[in-house]
Design goal:
The complex is a heterodimer of chains A (229) and B (450).
Chain A: H1 4-11, H2 26-54, H3 59-63, H4 65-72, E1 90-101, E2 107-109, E3 113-114, H5 115-123, H6 131-134, H7 136-146, H8 159-173, E4 182-194, E5 209-212, E6 216-217
Helix pairs in contact in A: 2-4, 7-8
Chain B: H1 3-19, H2 24-44, H3 49-53, H4 61-71, H5 83-102, H6 106-123, H7 130-142, H8 153-164, H9 189-207, H10 226-246, H11 249-286, H12 289-292, H13 310-317, H14 320-340, H15 344-364, H16 368-379, H17 384-409, H18 414-428, H19 430-449
The chains are: A alpha+beta (229), B mainly alpha (450).
Chain lengths: 229, 450
Amino acid sequence: MDTDDGRERKDGAGERAPAAPAGLSRPARCAIALGALTVAVVTVVHLGMMFLHVAPPNTVSKQHSSTIADYVLPEFEQNWKFFAPNPLQQNIHVQARAQVRAPDGEVRVTPWTDLSAQDGAAILHNPLPSHARQNQLRRAWDFYLAWHDDQGRPLGKRSPLAEEYLRRIAVSRIDLDREPGDLERVQLRSLTSNVAPPPWSKGQTGDPVRRELAWWRVESDDLKVVRVR
Amino acid sequence: MSVSSVRTAWSDAYARVTGSSLGPYQTALIRIGFSFTWLFFLAREWVNSQELYGPDAPWSWDLARRLTDDNGAFTVLMWSDSGWWFRLVYLLAMVSALLLMLGWRTRTMSVLYMIGLLSLQNRSVFVGDGGDNVLHLMAIYMVFTRCGQVWSLDARRARRRAAAGPGGTAPDESAPGTALTEEGKDRDVPGIVLWTVCGLALAFATTAADARLSWTAHGPVPGIGWAALLWALWSGHGLWWAVRRYGGTEPRAVMAAFGHLIHNAALLAILAEVCLIYGAAGWYKVQGSLWQDGSALYYPLHLDYFSPWPSLSHALAASGVVVLLLSYGTVAVQAAFPFTLINRRVKNVLVVAMIAEHLGIAVLLGLPFFSLVMVFADAVFLPTAFLVCAGGAVGRTAARGWSALVRFNRREIPAQWNRRAGVRASETGETEAAHGKAEAEADPARSTTG
């Protein structure tokens, strides 16, 4: 890959780049050559790793998957499947409700709060949507789904993190001013509705799919979470 | 092609990569572009910063610690869970981004910028998107580029020193980009102070028990820890300064060649990364049935999270032909981009097309920061002649605006201003008029020093 800069210089006045190695002693030239070789090898290895990480799993990358992962993670991790292979075709509404113990000892369950609708309202007609509204809940939900099976059973070491994260998001967003008392437990559910297919296609929309998670006990640490107004 | 012409081409290329830092305008543009985007982002998220990155964010400090303990991601925010440390890091991230954008001590600022950016992003990985991912990679690559050769305060300082007289030497290509390269007898006090402070901070960070900077583990690449990398950068800067100041011609030439080599390799990595982004994005889309039948773009335009202007999105998505053309066009441009680099003219057309598409995405899909990052990533492929021309135009406009501002400050936009000032004085009486006069006298001094 050539930069335009280099090519133009060549096309232009025919001016030659200053030849650094020329006129230097032999050791100096050797040092530069060695440096060039090292930089070239490092660059080729690095770009090779990046390519194998980004490309679909293939003969080479499957064989050396742990080497590639060691090299790439965590700082060079990347994912460029924007809306690919197929874009998401569903609007997912994550909702939350809480179980509150009122000062008089009565235990009540709040109505569902639509957290995704809160996000949607904040994004609507906003030229600069915040990551807090556009990515936080959406990616937390994806994170939870990736680490739990359909029954909500954990699949691995990240599962507790995903659960605690969702729980804290719920606590941060449930409006407790309307619900005085102690927050004891929260529950989340999702309503997934397909985007109506385009008029020129014959697809069906289908009914929204509902998924309800278990009630989770709120820890005392959760109550310190930053409140979203 | 004869053997000798291959040999000439080879030695030409070798002389070029060891003797010059290529793409000075392109690297300066991405320096300004990426640091501006990050600064703009941090300023925009100031009100939400506690919720995104603060100790009591939904992704709490403790959750982040458990994750980073496991995956080894680098973040100075894990050094303390106190609120003031978080505020300090956030502010330092903003300041380093600003100074990198202006090109003040570019080499040092690029490192501080990377530390700030990685710290915040790795603190809360689950609030980021593709734009953050690009910024993350580019911040690391930029540390190794001389991105301050032009359009920077460093370049201006080098120019002035060269113009100042006998003490200075002509600014060779390597001088402006390096924070600590000092020629002649003049002492660069700010540079030495900055270097010393950075060294002390790094020493504290390496020895303090909480800091967890490792020499060999959890680094950017296997075997090289963050302590090793940061100390290498720090001592590299110091050695470079010492060699330029006290070294002979040969050590200087060797060091200069190393600098050029590293810059050129990092620039290559940046260019390759952009190709990889487009190549992969196109490659995966080609496999998707909805991209194949040309209706893919219909769907994002109907997602609540990606349609801040629903009536506009729905109007655009209403036409099957428009959606088809945009969907096919997106796939074609993305998959083709890496190969168009073979032909300059085609490449330039495509770069312009992609910049236009990203500006559209900024508004339509409500992804302004991602789009801004991609626009600057695209712009690294713009031709030098265009960048020089555009840079000149921007510079002239800015100079005109600045001098107008200075004149305004000095009350040299006289007619209406004086008339209005006169009216105001007669209305409000003597004291305020006297005060205004004192202000007018004080201002020119301020504007010339400012």
